Amino acid sequence: MESLFDSAAEEATPQPLAVRMRPRTLDEVIGQRHLLGAGTPLRRLVESEAPMSLFLWGPPGTGKTTLAYVVSNVTKRRFVEVSAVSAGVKDVRAAIEVAKRELGMSGRQTVLFVDEVHRFNKAQQDALLPAVENRWVTFIGATTENPFFSVISPLLSRSLLLTLESLTDDDVRAVLERAVADDRGLGGRATVAPEAVDHLVRLAGGDARRSLTYLEAAALLSDDITVEVVEKAVDKAAVRYDRQGDQHYDVISAFIKSMRGSDADAALHYLARMIEAGEDPRFIARRIVIFASEDVGLADPTCLQTAVAAAQAVQLIGLPEGQINLAHAVLHCALAPKSNAVVKAIGAAIGDVRRGLIGQVPGHLRDAHYQGAAKLGHGDGYKYPHDFDHGLVRQDYAPEQVRDRRYYEPTKHGGEGVLAERWARIRDFLRGS
Questions:
Q1: For residues 406 and 414, is the Cβ–Cβ distance under 8 A?
Q2: Helix or strand or coil: residue 184?
Q3: Does 96 share its domain with 208?
Q4: pTM recorded for the entire structure
Q5: Segments forming the whole domain that contains residue 90
Q6: Helix (H, G, I), strand (E, B) or coil at 122
Q7: How far is the C-alpha of 411 from the C-alpha of 408, rounded, in Å?
Q8: In this structure, are 182 and 116 located in the same domain?
Q9: Is 15:96 a contact under the CB 8 Å cutoff?
Q10: What digits encode the pLDDT tens for the residues 317-344?
Q11: Has residue 1 been placed in a domain?
Q12: Tens digits of per-residue pLDDT, 139-153?
């Protein structure tokens, strides 16, 4: 149960580079500036001697385990790690009993770190409550899932929730540069070409641990680390892709046009290129959401739902798992029947407004709820559609200047074909045709 950071353990087995490079103080932590500034709750808690209860919520590789270890190291507390993937109630209670005994005999407090705490069921989480309530341990739970959905309320309400953000490219670059130079890392024994650093940053996808794992693998092959060495070490080709340059615009253009052309395989290829090159998954998700209305529209109304759900999923869980949600949405968009009637309709309507075709709102449609509106004739003569058969009644809705304009011209593709027939009948009825 004891931490892997014990000196005996360090002497017995060589530690991975990512472990050796873990920060020892809050000032050494890279990223998460919103949590680590002067006067922040985390700093105040670390600087005090009182036990605490924290939940660290964020994507993989953002420093949840690192922060737990730093809290333990700075406050001189025992560090005990329990993985919710493999531990049960018995393990949790055993760790708490040891912590209580240590606290009673020596006064030394314990940091009980539960990784993947969202995997604990209600009974397992309930087992943590006495230790948190009685402050037998400093409890820190790490989760990649929304704790409001995966953690029991009594435990969450007794804890401080801290949200970690994905590391930026500059953050990951700083992590790599420190590992190359620091004696705990490569200690300057290897040189890393700038292009190789760029490739490692792209491969990391905001995950500091992954970047160090790949760097260590490359260093085992050569002291002169080039892009080719990194490619050989991690079996991932360097994708030539500049997120600020032509490749960015060319690939996203090809991606959109492949979905529009219903070529699912080509669309997946460009999606994979962007993911492997380290493109921001939120950017990809936004483009898919736009596509769902711009190029599919009402030919398949569920396409927008899928796209929005994928965007929310990516925001919630990040990469690498988020690539499955993106692929799901891409396939739906590519294989859906296509219609650009929605974008043409709003474009035509906005065009008329910009040309000055606005006109007065018909009097019977104006707001009649405020005092004095009736004297102005507002709402006079309005016919309530629900009082008529089929919920339809013939009356003027549009201003006179655009009464005969046609904006929405549905296609016959997919589900829009049904809407086209219905809209034609409704429009003819309303216009008196």
A1: no
A2: coil
A3: no
A4: 0.53
A5: 7-163
A6: helix
A7: 10
A8: no
A9: no
A10: 887 889 999 999 999 999 999 999 999 9
A11: no
A12: 999 998 889 888 999
